[in-house]
Specification:
The complex is a heterodimer.
Chain A (H helix, E strand, L loop, with lengths): L9 E7 L6 H15 L3 E7 L4 H12 L4 E5 L6 H11 L4 E4 L11 H7 L5 E6 L6 H18 L11 E4 H6 L10 H7 L4 E6 L13 H20 L3 H30 L7 H30 L8 E5 L6 E2 L1
Parallel strand pairs in A: 1-2, 1-4, 2-3, 5-7
Antiparallel strand pairs in A: 4-6, 5-6, 8-9
Helix pairs in contact in A: 5-8, 9-10
Chain B lengths: L6 E7 L6 H12 L6 E7 L6 H11 L3 E6 L5 H11 L4 E4 L11 H9 L4 E6 L6 H19 L11 E4 H4 L12 H5 L6 E6 L16 H17 L3 H29 L6 H30 L4 H8 L8 H10 L1
Parallel strand pairs in B: 1-2, 1-4, 2-3, 5-7
Antiparallel strand pairs in B: 4-6, 5-6
Helix pairs in contact in B: 5-8, 9-10
The chains are: A alpha/beta, B alpha/beta.
Chain lengths: ~325, ~325
């Protein structure tokens, strides 16, 4: 555990990407809201790649006497990496992540922190929500996919205003675009996830559309997390599922062809269906082999991983200890 | 820290508020007369009733009780694994938290352990469960498990088992392996014994298992077979799997070539193609096996470590003669 700097309770991490609001105004608003909570805090800005105007704004803030920490990444690494880089500098027992543009009304930040009483990670849902019909359909489909795959009923994974206990980020290392799915990963580690409704900022407006590539990335991320959450410890369950279906279809087809040959005398030699069925059989077997290979990887490394998270060990009062 | 006890009794609890006190009393009543030092490790598997509170009260009143609290419900295997990890005794005994196992059987288990066994498993010979949904599937599963793994145990599902701590602590337990622990442990070559134990019908609470597990058990069995019999030689296992494909492919391909060359008929594309597909499949399986060798080499499971756990060293060199040799050399 990193050393705690002078009793800071709240660490705020703001990853700044190409899309960001006027940082000076944003900082003023965030600072105001944080002061209202009345806990000691620090604000860490992580610049994801060179963003000259953001750097300039933060320089000015620093010169005007604002106490902030700025982490500059040399190239665009993505928001997950930026978050982790910011977290390395954070010393508070509670970590808040806030977007670099207006998503929620800043005064809601206090509610996020307050909700940590009954949860380990609190995520916000902008509600009531502005946005067109198409946008709503797209969002609904994405979240239904997520809830189907991870079993978590969430409604606004795009909102990155989140509060969490320090432990959450200590135990979960994010990569790629997984910050969006942090709640699902946290849930898998046994943390309590809570979604609360917050007021959407009047300035939270998104013009234009995402590129197709971004949609593809998001869906792939969901699949990756789905696999991690459900099958890390039992790869054969996953590969076996696909393997068993292809294998059985192939086998049935082969049996049919053989019966057709033996009983009805239809020659096999000119039947392309034979190729198809044998392909299916071989594919099924290979999928099984992949699953077994995965199991072998898990088994030979099982010593280092744990299937469970112990919250604490309760012993005779004299030596109760936290794990 | 108190000196480590001889016996650790590991009991996972999941929503067993009705049973936990009874369980505690039953264990103390059964073990205290045996005059061995013991501890109880209660694992709270994320219960939502007041099981944890009751367990904490027991721990506060009795220093022999320790409670390991999970952050949420993780399942029976993780609960057992956590209990095994946190236990400090030389002999570990696991049992269900629902009073279906009888702590009075601990005495028998201990006696069997003292005969030099590394693992003693309980066999619920008069099992108090429903015939169709529980007993028959479990009988078939046990037969199958015994056949495939070569560890013929009549009742893998019984939680009442005793282990030598030095052996079980080195066996990786993960996923839903609790019913396969003896089979998993067989990679270490332990001496396994089985004894009849009592089994009571559930008195309080309700059973938490269903019937829909055949697919999972079958797959798990395949995994056990792979890891328990072939960890040291994964290539062999994949080679065995690829052998029928190799043979079939060669046969089909050869047949089609032969008819084309000898009988001067046109080459049959579907048959030759099928042969080629099977040959290719066999080659890919073999390559997977080679990859498996790499995985095993880079992993941290070594067969020699397991051999060390259960070996017996007998030497005719006495301590004195060793000293002499040291001086001479």
């Amino acid at each position: 555990m990193t050393q705690r700097k002078s009793g800071i309770q709240l660490s705020v991490i703001v990853p700044v990407g190409t899309r960001h609001a006027d940082l000076k105004a944003l900082h003023r608003d965030y600072r105001q809201a944080l002061d209202d909570i009345g806990r000691s805090h620090e604000i860490i800005y992580v610049l994801d790649g060179p963003i000259p105007e953001a750097t300039a704004a933060l320089e000015q803030l620093m010169q005007s006497g604002e106490r902030i920490t700025v982490v500059q990444l040399t190239r665009l690494f993505g928001e997950s990496t930026a978050l982790m880089a910011g977290f390395e500098q954070a010393s508070g027992a509670i970590v808040l992540t806030l977007p670099a543009y207006y998503q929620i009304e800043p005064e809601e930040i206090g509610n996020l922190v307050a909700a940590l009483e009954s949860a380990d990670i609190v995520i916000s849902r902008r509600w009531p929500r502005a946005g067109g019909l198409l946008e709503r359909i797209r969002r609904g489909a994405f979240h239904r996919l997520v809830s189907w795959m991870t079993g978590l009923e969430l409604h606004d994974l795009g909102c990155t205003a989140r509060a969490m206990k320090r432990q959450v980020l200590e135990e979960i290392s994010l990569y790629g675009d997984q910050h969006r799915l942090l709640p699902a990963l946290a849930d898998r580690q046994g943390f309590r996830v809570l979604e609360i409704d917050v007021k959407q900022s009047a300035q939270d407006r998104f013009e234009g559309a995402y590129r197709t590539r971004e949609y593809a990335h998001r869906v792939l991320d969901v699949f990756a997390v789905f696999f991690l959450v459900r099958f890390t410890k039992k790869p054969l369950r996953f590969f076996g599922m696909i393997g068993a279906s292809t294998l059985s279809i192939g086998t049935i087809l082969v049996i049919y062809l053989v019966i057709d040959r033996l009983v009805f005398g239809n020659a096999l030699a000119n039947r392309p269906a034979l190729l198809l069925s044998s392909l299916l059989v071989v594919l099924g077997l290979q999928l099984f082999a992949l699953g077994l290979l995965g199991e072998l990887i898990i088994f030979t490394h099982a010593g280092g991983m744990k299937d469970y998270q112990v919250e604490r060990v309760i012993e005779c009062p004299s030596h109760e200890n936290l794990v | 820290m108190p000196p480590s006890p001889r016996l650790s009794i590991i009991v996972p609890f999941y929503n067993e508020a009705d049973n936990i006190r009874r369980m505690y009393t039953a264990i103390v009543d059964a073990v205290a007369p045996l005059e061995v030092s013991f501890e109880m490790v209660f694992v709270d598997d994320g219960s939502r009733d007041n099981t944890l509170q009751l367990a904490s009260e027991l721990a506060a009143a009795d220093s022999r009780v320790r409670v390991v609290k999970f952050r949420r419900n993780f399942g029976q295997t993780p609960a057992m694994a956590a209990g095994i990890e946190h236990a400090r005794g030389e002999i570990l005994i696991t049992m269900d938290g629902d009073l279906q196992n009888d702590p009075a059987d601990i005495q028998q288990l201990l006696a069997k352990m003292d005969e030099g066994n590394d693992i003693v498993v309980g066999w619920r010979f008069n099992r108090q469960d429903k015939m169709i949904s529980r007993k028959i599937p479990s009988m078939i599963a046990n037969r199958l498990i015994g056949k495939v793994t070569g560890v013929p145990i009549k009742d893998n599902g019984c939680s009442l088992k005793a282990y030598r701590a030095s052996v079980i602590k080195h066996i990786p337990l993960y996923s839903e392996m609790h019913r396969f622990i003896p089979a998993m442990a067989s990679i270490a070559g332990p001496r396994i014994a089985e004894i009849k134990v009592r089994h009571h019908a559930r008195q309080f609470g309700k059973s938490k298992y269903g019937l829909s597990r055949i697919y999972k058990v079958l797959l798990d069995l395949m995994v056990i077979k792979t890891v328990a019999s072939f960890t040291a030689r994964p290539l062999l296992w994949f080679a065995l799997l690829s052998l029928p494909m190799f043979g079939g492919g060669l046969l089909l391909f050869g047949y089609s070539l032969l008819t084309a060359l000898v009988a001067h008929e046109p080459l049959s594309l579907p048959i030759a193609g099928t042969g080629l597909i099977f040959l290719a499949g066999a080659v890919i399986l073999l390559s997977s096996g080679a990859l498996a060798e790499v995985v095993y080499k880079l992993g941290d499971i070594r067969e020699s470590d397991f051999a060390r756990l259960t070996r017996q060293v007998r030497t005719s060199i006495t301590a004195d003669s060793q000293k002499e040799q040291a001086i001479l050399s």
